[in-house]
Amino acid sequence: xxAVSLSSSSIFIFxxxxxxxxxxxxxEAAEAHPISTLINKKLYNTLxxxxxxxxxxxxxxxxxxxxxxxxxxxxxxxxTGSLATRKREIAAFLAQISHETGGGWATAxxxxxxxxxxxxEEINPGSNYCDDTYKQWPCYxxxxxxxRGPIQLSWNFNYGQAGKALGFDGLKNPEIVANNSLIxxxxxxxxxxxxxxxxxxxxxxxxGRYVLTKADVAANRTVGFGMVTNIINGALECGIGSDAxxxxxxxxxxxxxxxxSVQTGPNLDCANQKxx
Length: 276
Ligand SMILES: *[C@@H]1O[C@H](CO)[C@@H](O)[C@H](O)[C@H]1NC(C)=O
Ligand SMILES: *[C@@H]1O[C@H](CO)[C@@H](O)[C@H](O)[C@H]1NC(C)=O
Hints:
By secondary structure, the protein is mainly α. Helices cover 45% and strands 0% of the residues. It folds into three domains: 1-32; 34-119 and 195-276, Orthogonal Bundle (Lysozyme), CATH 1.10.530; 123-181, Endochitinase, domain 2 (2-Layer Sandwich). Bound molecules: 2-acetamido-2-deoxy-beta-D-glucopyranose (NAG) (2 copies). One 2-acetamido-2-deoxy-beta-D-glucopyranose is lined by residues 121, 175, 178-179.
């Protein structure tokens, strides 16, 4: 709904003068430079070479169409900053969701980093990820808030908040994240775009908008792909030296950045960073 009214307003603005186009909002940036110009279907299929293999439980779920449609709900995504910044943000996002859903192994066909988007839900969850100290996001009896979708959305408080932001009942119907590919991609982009204090948003970090705080400096956190890993799973993966999970994320990012013809930027790991 919002997308429809905003696109007509941007056409109106465009007909008045193009000068405003660059200053008004990221809506106009998204309209003028859709991310489909940076990632077409061919590149998408090259990044995710095996997502539709029979061996992948998510085969035929994570469609290009759903991905592009979901990005339209988040007009700042992949539209902020220079061309290189835009490509780097998209590559970083796709790399992180590839680690979360990856089905590769060291000697896998086409290498370990060609197997992103293979899974849509966590296979052997250790719990139902209900933290009942979050009173405002009460767990619904019998429901599991295990990892689902591209970012492997987990925990009642994330399902509750994502559902509220995106218009579904995340607490009562968490399964929809593994059943509806548009909603599924939206949950991953919601997580990417949304600041959850004291963590910044992954988006702000990757577009260079985030300014380090004193706490970051004290924790030896630096801006880059490693900080994004810290936001996503730092409590388990960061500040413990070289870590296979962190290196897997970096492996995807390097392959994708190369396919996007963009540099990865500095600070790829979080080996020496304390978590948030
Ligand atoms: C929805 O996804 C769950 C797994 O999270 C699955 O068990 C269930 O069968 C799916 N329901 C539909 C209607 O596809
Ligand atoms: C901070 O991180 C850098 C790498 O980014 C590392 O070389 C340095 O030793 C770290 N310092 C501390 C105090 O951990």
